[in-house]
Amino acid sequence: MIDLKDHLQPFATATRLTPQEAANLCVGQLGIFNTLQHGPPEIRPEPTPLAQLSFHHRWLFHSEPRYCPQCLAGDGSPLQNEHGGPWRRHWYLPMVFACPIHQRLLRHACPAGSNHEIHAAPMDRSAVGSLSDPRPHPTQCRHLTGQKPSGGRRAFCGVQLADPSPDHQPADEVPELLRLQNSLITNMNRPPGDPLRVAGTPIMNHQYFTDLGIIAALVLLSWPASEGLCASPTLAAAIDEEARLRLHMSRTRQTHHHQNQFRVSQPWAAAPADARTCAAILSIAWKVLKKPTSGGLQRALAPLLIQADRTNGRATNAIRSNPRRSRALAVAMRKPWSGLRHGPRLNSAPGW
Ligand SMILES: [Zn+2]
Ligand SMILES: [Zn+2]
């Protein structure tokens, strides 16, 4: 799903596509990852295979796509009537949570998800279920179920994911989340001549989204420190539930003192599957990251860093020292805030 690598030419030959057409089927061709491969050498970080990048950046890549049931229902053309609408590459990006065509939030799970037989952690599973099974229609759920094998092949879920009926979401939330979605998609396709900026400093597309994921992790870990930036009380309630879940995960997981940084920050290092909760967190992170100066960014981050540090200092350090963050974000997350750790309450701290 990310990059066909050595399989590109054989795949292109077998499918009668040009190599570029075959490559374009992959998520790695999206603008968000493009700068990683083709950015100017002086600002390109150490070369990282995309598959590895996607594993460590679970705010950048999902192994399980979200989907728009209306897109899957097709556009009424003979081709789409037969095969359904396309599964879009963007649906593998956690930062894509809405469909701009149908003006709705995406779904993230099969309605019959509890029937699925889950073999491994999400990142260890194949991004497409029952890969070699020709039976499911492209718009049917391909997950295996726990049922006994029948006729030599394992039973798959088969629930129809396409649905032409429009969604019913709270009308006061969707316009703001759709505006955010449009802005994020525009940023993903930003041309090299007009780079994105963090605190006024030009950075590459993928770095911008890495930074956004780092701040999103801090929003969760420090919740409810940034509640004032949330678009609505119902979205705040969704983040509240997610934040409790992550905290619970971090406490029930066996933690060893020598555990590496990746594992320590893991409970906060992935985007929620639910589109609405994910969008709510990202909308706060986006408001923080768009501060135009380093001082502004630092001031916006300080309450999050202070509260996150109180909740879990080791995880905060691990998130904050993510080696793939932009230099501008690294500067804004430097540690003057640590002096306030045992100081006055957040809301009365002078200067913040
Ligand atoms: Zn759609
Ligand atoms: Zn299913």
Automatic annotation (TrEMBL):
Residues 126-152 are annotated as: Disordered. It comes from the Bacteria. It comes from Streptosporangium album. Residues 9-106 form the TniQ domain. InterPro entries: TniQ. This is TniQ domain-containing protein.
